């Protein structure tokens, strides 16, 4: 019983993309093992049972959660269309919107249109001038061009049926082209983007990957981040939902600003078009970390002074009303 609960808990914490990736890895691994060790041929049919168990478990968990959301919608007397829509998993909807937005960005890039960055604040915080996004883009292009011939050789070695081998080549080609579309769409959006700041909010923007309007009153502290991100994560024993890395290329552009927020459920952020509660820590990559810390700290001090002035005014007003 406990093993079954752990299995469903594992599936619950995995996204659809991760589940499909695990299924693909299981199919590919078992096929390679059968090719290397022919005596394992009986397990080749068993691989579909493993994949079915993973996929069916994910469907059951998502269906149960969708049923619970629909019941809540019925209690709130929502329209029938919205009740039915609540049955669709929110991460699936946000993923579809995310991919659609990147594809739209790709076609805008083809038309050589300029992206107008969303920057409500009057003080800009740049992060693309010193980013290694361009280097990572070139590396990705090389990986895609190398992956196709390597995949051709691998599929030719492990897939004997010419029809299956043909469709495997088609699938790799389509996935490579689609990945290229997403990357170019993301580049079109993030190229001219930056964070911004005004007297009330810190506006964080990182293409469609992350968006958040953080009230200055909800920022507990800000500091220059000098630790290694992985070491900091393990040293402080941070869970995945307690932090958010806001960087053009997380694997290369290491965070250099740490922002700690006040624990408050009222602050929300958007991750890949999915609205969630803001994490406790925001780790940013910016071009000039000391300058960014200084301007955010000054804005925080100004916000605190304004808040103290309003509190004093309210107190005087209430006392005057009581004496009258």
Descriptive report:
With 324 residues, the chain is an alpha+beta fold. Helices cover 59% and strands 14% of the residues. It has helices spanning 2-13, 16-36, 43-75, 80-85, 90-110, 133-158, 162-190, 229-235, 289-323; strands spanning 123-125, 195-197, 201-206, 210-215, 219-224, 243-246, 257-261, 268-271, 274-277, 281-284. The strands form two sheets. A six-stranded antiparallel beta sheet has the order 1-2-3-4-8-9. It has a four-stranded mixed beta sheet with strand order 5-7-10-6, with helices on one face. Helix 2 (16-36) packs antiparallel against helix 3, helix 5 (90-110) crosses helix 7 and helix 6 runs antiparallel to helix 7. The relative contact order is 0.09.
Major sheet, described briefly?
6 strands, antiparallel
| Helix percentage range | 55-70%
The SS-based structural class is: alpha+beta
SSE pattern: HHHHHEHHEEEEHEEEEEH
Per DSSP, the total helix count is 9
Number of strands: 10
Strands of the widest sheet, in order across it, are: 1-2-3-4-8-9
Radius of gyration: 25 Å
Note the gap between the termini.
Answer: 69 Å
Please sum up the structure shown.
This protein is of the alpha+beta class. The protein has helices at 2-13, 16-36, 43-75, 80-85, 90-110, 133-158, 162-190, 229-235, 289-323, and strands at residues 123-125, 195-197, 201-206, 210-215, 219-224, 243-246, 257-261, 268-271, 274-277, 281-284.
């Amino acid at each position: 019983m406990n093993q079954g609960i752990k299995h469903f808990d594992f599936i619950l914490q995995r996204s659809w993309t991760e589940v499909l990736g695990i299924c693909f890895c299981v199919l590919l691994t078992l096929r390679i093992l059968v090719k290397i060790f022919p005596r394992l041929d009986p397990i080749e049919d068993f691989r579909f049972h493993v994949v079915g168990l993973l996929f069916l478990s994910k469907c059951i968990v998502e269906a149960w959660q969708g049923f619970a959301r629909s019941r809540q919608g019925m209690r709130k007397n929502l329209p029938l269309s919205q009740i039915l829509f609540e049955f669709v998993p929110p991460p699936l909807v946000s993923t579809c919107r995310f991919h659609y937005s990147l594809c739209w960005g790709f076609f805008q890039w083809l038309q050589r249109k300029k992206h107008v960055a969303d920057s409500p604040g009057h003080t800009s915080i740049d992060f693309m001038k010193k980013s290694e996004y361009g280097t990572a883009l070139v590396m990705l292009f090389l990986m895609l061009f190398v992956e196709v011939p390597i995949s051709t050789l691998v599929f030719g070695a492990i897939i004997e049926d010419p029809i299956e081998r043909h469709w495997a080549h088609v699938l790799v080609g389509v996935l490579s082209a689609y990945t290229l579309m997403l990357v170019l769409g993301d580049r079109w959006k993030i190229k001219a983007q930056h964070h911004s700041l005004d007297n009330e909010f810190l506006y964080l923007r990182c293409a469609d990957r992350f968006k958040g309007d953080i009230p200055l009153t909800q920022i507990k502290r800000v500091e220059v981040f000098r630790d290694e991100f992985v070491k900091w994560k393990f040293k402080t024993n941070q869970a995945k939902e307690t932090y958010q890395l806001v960087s053009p290329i997380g694997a290369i552009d290491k965070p250099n600003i740490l922002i700690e927020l006040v624990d408050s459920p009222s602050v929300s952020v958007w991750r890949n078009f999915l609205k969630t509660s803001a994490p406790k820590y925001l780790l940013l990559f910016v071009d000039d970390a000391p300058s960014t810390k200084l301007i955010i700290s000054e804005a925080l001090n100004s916000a605190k002074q304004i808040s103290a002035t309003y509190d004093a005014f309210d107190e005087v007003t209430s006392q005057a009303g009581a004496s009258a």
